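look at this record:
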Amino acid sequence: MLLLNPFLIAFFEVLYFILNIYMFAIIGYILLSWVPELRNSRIYAFLHQIVDPYLRIFRGFLVFGNFDFTPIIGILLLRFFLMFMADFIQTL
C-alpha cells in the first residue's frame, strides 16, 4: 500500500491538471464564441470538438432570449469537482 500511494497521488494530480486545462478551454471557447469572425477559425473548431460534448449535457437549461448561460453551469460543476479533487489529493 505504501508504494501505491505516490502513484495514486501522481495520477490524481495529473488528472487535476488536465481538468484544469479543460476548464480554461471552456473559457476560451466561450470568449471566442462572442466574436463572430473567429467562429470560422481552426482554434474555435478545435475547442468546439473538445468542449461541446461536455456542454451539450447542460444545453437549454439557462437560456434567456439570445443568451445561453449553459457554460456557466458546466464551469461551476467542473470547478466544484476540481475543488473536491484538490481536497481529496490533500488527504492522500
About this structure: The longest strand covers residues 63-64. The helical segments are 4-33, 42-55, 70-91. The two ends are 12 Å apart (CA to CA). The chain has a mean pLDDT of 90.
